[in-house]
Design a protein that fits this description.
Length: about 210
């Protein structure tokens, strides 16, 4: 059948793996350092993986493909649509409480989020926390500069990627500035992306 399905440009792909995290059906894998759609019938064609790609290597096209098999996806991934399990993989999750040598930071994809974001964005666990280590905080309420803590975490751990989820409100700009300062200070080339959530709970900007 002809239908909409994900297409990955391997020339643009840098192998960061963020699309694998974004694909809730496990239809994408990293093979030989590049993302690849491995199961047509696991791809629903809706493109949840698109905003996770920092290289704009993913698009939606129409081509001959197997029909989306939701039953197979549910069975293989043990998915239930009646109860959503927590995607929090570690404790603590507050930025100011996490030690830079915590074992859970080793070889992880890191999510740093304004604590308001989880309350504003309904699918925060599924869309952002899945397969990531989550650190939350608010520099305004904590009255803290996280720059040194972020630098230490990034410098002394093999962080595979960093995703920042912040609100559109002005006080969240400080969180991004602290993280950018740390990314420069750690002297590593770590894939980095930002998602901005509106006060109405919608993703309004990705970069």
């Amino acid at each position: 059948m002809i239908r909409k399905i994900v297409s990955i440009d391997k020339e643009k792909c840098n192998g960061c793996g963020l699309c694998v995290i974004g694909c809730h059906e496990n239809a994408i894998k990293i093979i030989d350092g590049k993302a690849e759609l491995v199961k047509d019938d696991y791809c629903d064609g809706l493109g949840d993986c698109l905003p996770h790609c920092p290289k704009d290597a993913i698009s939606i096209i129409e081509r001959e493909a197997k029909a989306y098999d939701i039953d197979a996806v549910i069975n293989e991934n043990n998915v239930t649509f009646h109860h959503q399990e927590s995607n929090l993989k570690q404790w603590p999750c507050q930025i100011k409480l996490v030690s830079s040598n915590a074992q859970f930071l080793a070889n992880c994809h890191l999510l740093i989020a304004a604590d308001c974001a989880a309350y504003s964005y309904a699918n925060f666990h599924k869309d952002f926390m899945n397969k990531r280590i989550t650190l939350i905080g608010c520099p305004k309420l904590d009255n803290t500069d996280y720059s040194e803590r972020f630098t230490s975490i990034l410098k002394y751990n093999n962080i595979k990627s960093v995703t920042l989820v912040k609100m559109e409100v002005p006080c969240c700009s400080g969180l991004e500035k602290m993280l950018q300062k740390a990314l420069t200070a750690c002297e590593k080339n770590i894939p980095y992306s930002v998602r901005v959530i509106s006060v109405k709970g919608e993703v309004i900007k990705c970069y």
